Amino acid sequence: MIPSPEDIRLSALYSLGLLDTPASESFDRITRMASQIFDLPIAAISLTDTDRQWFKSRVGVEHQSIPRERAPCAEVAEKSTMLVIPDMAEDAYYSESNLGKSGVRFCAGAPLTTREGHGLGALCVLGLEPRRANARELAALEDLAAMVMAQIELQHAYGRIDPVSGLPNRTQFFEDLSDLIKEPAKHLGRRGILVDLAEARQLDDLSRVLGPTRIDATVREAAQRLRAAMDFKKNLYHVSATQFAFIEELGNSATHFPPNLGELLAELEDASSFTILMTPAIGVAVIASDDTPEDILRAMSSAARDARLTPTKVEVYSKSSDDRHQRSFRLLQDFDNALKSNDQLSLVFQPRVNLANDRCIGAEVLLRWQHPVLGSISPGEFAPIIEQSPYITKMTAWVVDAALRQSSLWKASGIHIPLSVNISAANLEEVDFVQKIVLALLRHGIVPEMLELEVTESAIMKNAANCLAKLSALSEGGIRLSIDDFGTGYSSLSYLQKLPTTVVKIDQSFIHDLNLGHRQRNLVHSMIKLSQDLGYQVVAEGVETLEVADILKTMGCDDAQGYLFAKPLRPAEFESWFWSDRGTVYRPLKAIS
């Protein structure tokens, strides 16, 4: 639904919040000046609503408003031009108006127009006798109308109106919401609605291609469509670059949502102006008396983010979901302190066993975090958060340094095995990543062959050309390279022949189901055979039973790691395990029945 010019004009009027507000001396002063300049008994600042002319200020008028029909000030607002009626009794149209019938003969009105060209109403002077207005008087009336608009901007818009949409901004939203919360009778049974036009990533892409001017035009169109969808009966606020909010009654339930706004989401996506942006979403949050405006807006934003994961793109605030996001944010904030502390981060080591001779031939390095307040944090929880943050490069540097320090200690005690460390796409994008690794090896006196770096297929494919160059430089320096979680990426076997890696680690999701049937076995066997034909050493991850180990051995798989051999072990535990019988021969393999 495309709003009409009148809809847009009314939206501009309503967004200023002027209608039905108390009298103001700053406006009355201008009205009195108009009356004095024209030497007329009646003057008014008249705002044109849907069906009435409401007077923000008036001299010589008893009524607060008059009907809009055939009101001269309505014509001024609609056309945004000066209107002069020398004798209303002689005017065929206005002689039958309310003013004409009440005895008004003369009328002159100057438009009250916003910077965007929307007519709000008029500054009018009226007389009970016919007369004419000279150029000096009309120029003065226009100047006074401009003073009215300046006062409107000063009192009702300065710092409270978004310059792009012309709607009340977040400051005004917080103030109005605070007033609402203070009165339980008003806020009970109400909820906040937030319409989020686009994700941050989408905005970045659009801005990069088309520039901010196009985004502004898109936001303005969205504001107009939203106002039209709500029939201009609710206050709409522009609370961030692409987010709009309003308050409404709950209706039947907190989860019910007006169908017209659900339809609006589809309209926004289909509109030509939005084809590049958009996955609009709506977040809903019930207003409680103990909430602050900031809490309510954050809850709506959280719900809108969750809504993007739903088919309807509409979601009600969930405390449990919000708690998860809050925890993730806290972990991200606290990780920097963890890196600087001496007792929060530590390493564990999971052995890698050669299936042909049953000996430990290496270990994978895994990071652990003991939070001082939250306790032990699972790597499955914190690793994905850190990998998407700037801390990922610091985390990898910490792990590499700690792993090489441990390797140096073990070398002195006779444990001389390669250690493998996981790296991410962000590490391969570091300009000096290769130099950092080389310097770390030199600092701890470890030969390159004792360090293996594991990287996933998906990490390589984010910037294949750059990653290949970095991996080649590492390989030429003698550092072992492996493809981690093989089979889960989208490049699969096609890149094996191009990568300077020597080890393939088959993801545990394939290994767990190895004993369930021939299809699973054939798939893993094919992965092992093809990888070895290309010159790769193959490692099976997640081996937990002797039966699976037996199957892998008959397939010719080189190495394996998993709970069958050992869980990830702390350094002292690993040393004990390594020097025990389990360290050299994990257990005789049972024959396949």
UniProtKB/TrEMBL annotation:
Top-level taxon in the UniProt lineage: Bacteria
Domain EAL: 328-582
CDD domains assigned: EAL (cd01948)
Gene Ontology MF: a single term: cyclic-guanylate-specific phosphodiesterase activity
Pfam families the UniProt entry points to: EAL, GAF, GGDEF
Protein name from the UniProt record: EAL domain-containing protein
Organism: Aliirhizobium smilacinae
